Amino acid sequence: MGDVSSSIGRGFPEEHEARRLRDVLAASLGPEVEVVATGEGVHWHIDAQRGGRRVRLHVFDYGRDGFEYAHEFHAGAARVGSGRTREQRAVLEAVRAWVLESRALADVWRVAPFVDERKRALSALAATLNRALVAQGSSRRSQLLPRHGGDDPFHELWLYAPDRSCRMGPDQGGIPFALRWRSTDLASGVAPSPDDLARLVIEWLDRQARATALTGDFPFLSLAECARAYEEGRFLDWTWALLGRRAQDLESTLGRFHGSLVPLLAEREGPRGFYVFTSLTHLCFSRSSAYPFDTRGLPVVSPTTWDRGERYAVTVDGREVLTGDPATVADRLDAILLPGVGRSFQGSLEDVLQEEVNAALAARGARSRVAKVQIGEWFRHVAQQGDRAVAVSRSREPHEDRADLLEGLDGSYADAAHRCERLEPARRLDRLDAASCAAAVVEWLE
Fold this sequence. Notes:
Layout: H1 13-29, E1 34-40, E2 43-50, E3 53-61, E4 67-75, E5 78-85, H2 88-100, H3 105-111, H4 117-135, E6 143-146, E7 155-161, E8 164-168, E9 175-181, E10 184-191, H5 194-206, H6 211-214, E11 221-223, H7 227-231, H8 235-247, H9 253-258, H10 262-266, H11 269-272, E12 275-279, E13 282-286, E14 299-303, E15 312-316, E16 319-324, H12 326-337, H13 349-363, E17 371-375, E18 378-385, E19 388-393, E20 401-406, H14 413-418, E21 427-432, H15 434-445
Antiparallel strand pairs: 1-2, 2-3, 3-4, 4-5, 6-7, 7-8, 8-9, 9-10, 10-11, 12-13, 13-14, 14-15, 15-16, 17-18, 18-19, 19-20, 20-21
Helix pairs in contact: 2-3, 4-5, 13-15
């Protein structure tokens, strides 16, 4: 790693573009601004800094489509803005306004509209949508969140209810959205206006309507393939129908390595009683439908030949139990899995942990309860009293639950997470079980 002027690279386009752009910025901004390019391989960025202000530019090569420049605007240690553009003039104007001229961020938006473009569009939509919700009598209010955490520029707008949510993108002559049940999209579309979207989310979130029942009143709503099966509780049926279709694609990992096996498994009761996920070339069975999965005591199928997996090895908890051709493996898996049919569940191990901890809290006569908190795409299981909270999580291993003890929260755990605050625990307790998680909740909160 080092300044590009002294780098001896292998000629990656990103490196050459970083070298060129570093020189252009340095010449344009003058000696008051320090401009340094740093990187290795295809990962290069340029920092332009003057005093406490800095812009970091990441260079991405899209071949014939040219380069894209991702900007991060910093004031001291804080990141205050971001954006992406392919226009070099826009890069120069944004960096000059922020670093050299020390303009306010709102002024940077005017000279370089790509900065915080998505975030600003969604903020405006949130205000309009919230007014529509108020006018229609709903207490729901939208939450603006980065897609992948505090440093991600790709924001999305969310509305939540227990187990249900609506994810929205910026208005571009219509508002794209998806109606979600837990972590699955059941329907999506483009709403013509905030008023139309408000009417829809009131039905979905406040009145708990089924997605399949909403298409008549909302013609802009399209159902996902899984919607009817999910709303009828046929989760495993949908899992195996989808698995069968994916296994027919011989260009996919599943089709290449398990294309001969999956149709045989789908004919047998034992395998169809469990959820399945893939890990690289491995086909793994699970009692739970979502990560973290419940795989203890369940088989993992691994191809032992490179093309279409005509022979397999089956392991259980790391111990090999058989090898064979697809028919042999399917028969044996049916025998292994049949006794466990009926023990699968829709959700994750952490959903089970929540139930177990709350049962233990009730048995202790405690006031606290663990609740499921949605933060964008993700869920946390949290108990809170005042400015203290306990977030519990579970791994695949027995007696490996964890409790993060937090204090000094300003408002709810969800509010702090939505503000993208770093929620560092005051203490972390590992190697627990549900009863000891409950004990930690009582000790920390009560």
